[in-house]
Amino acid sequence: MRILVLGGAGAMGMVAVRDLAESPEVSEVIIGDANVEKAKEVAEWTGTEKVSVKKVDISNFESLTSVMKEVDTVANAAPYHLNLTVTKAAIYARKNLTDLGGVYYMTLKQLELNNEAKNADITVVLGCGLAPGVADILAKHGADKLDKVGEVHIWYGDRSFEPAKYKWSFRTILEEYTKGPVVYENGEFKSLPPFSGKQLVEFPAPVGERACCYALYSGLATLPYTINKGVKKVACSMSYTQEDELRIKVLNELGLTKTEPIKIGEIEISPREFLLRCVPPPDVKAKDASSLIVEVKGEKDGCSAKIRYSLVQKFHETYNVSAIAYLTGVPLSIVSQMLAKGEIKEKGVLPPETAVPHESFFKELAKRGITINETVERTLKLV
């Protein structure tokens, strides 16, 4: 199998590259990235000659589709705002594709390409990281065990054990915290102000208690439909700090999150794009721990039931990467390999919870030290 990893020099992509390279069934991994020097460092870090590097400019459609045609499957770990371009390129090149999610609104645009992907006889699996990704698969897995589903809650929390400002793309952080979250309640998608739904959540040690708020989450675009079963509420909350909230508030007040271009001399650029050029890359080596909790409430055999899944991951010592980088990059690798091996048959643009075979996916996670705990609670029969 020859697999192309777009954005393979980034914090999440590099983990996918290494995991792919360590798979005996993968013959070659191609890092497709604009930053060739960084990509070469990642290739050397993997410790194998199976990894090669190609300079790829995603904005150049001809160049992008050309390199796609050389491989069996494409894993897209590039920034989310490029997802639509990459999806269209995969359809044109007739290559199966995975990505890390589109922060809800981009996901909606990608889902509109479902028929085009079917006509091209390809599969595009969206949101194949931790959240979206593992979280959505767990939500559907739990829902499938119940007769009726009332609520689905996803919580993500992390804790840094040394100073670390950002562990994933600041572009994603800006999108989530300036547009505000979306929740599904009583058959409606509701847009809420940024930092809504504040709550304290107790995660497994060593993450512990963290402040969380509702997130702008890709899985909200599909979970209400794929779960169905009468579900009344679907929501995702992620941990944040007062520093995060204050920083976003100040940037908003200064006008630095605006997307309308302004002219500086002979150059036109939006304040947001200027800001993003100034922010340092994510700290992939941050010493941290990350945790995910997925809770599905409903009914089984006339009884109230609650199924709860949890996992926790510490900083990955072998890879020397943050917990969130490991938990995001590894699932992308696993699903990409499933696609390349033909284990996912359905065509079109699909969410992970319906495309990915649950049990085999969980087994692959466990092989890499990512274990999931399940608890089930049932009460007396409903009257």
The description of the largest β-sheet is:
9 strands, mixed
Oligomer: single chain
Q: Could you estimate the helical fraction of the residues in percent?
A: 25-40%
Tell me, what's the shape? globular
**Number of continuous helical runs:** 14
Total DSSP E strands: 18
Quick structural summary:
The protein is an alpha/beta fold. The chain has helices spanning 13-21, 36-46, 61-68, 83-93, 105-111, 114-119, 134-143, 170-179, 223-227, 242-253, 271-278, 323-340, 352-355, 358-367; strands at residues 2-6, 28-33, 51-55, 73-76, 96-99, 123-125, 148-160, 182-185, 188-191, 199-202, 209-214, 233-239, 262-264, 267-269, 288-300, 303-314, 348-350, 373-381. Strand 2, helix 2 and strand 3 form a beta-alpha-beta unit.
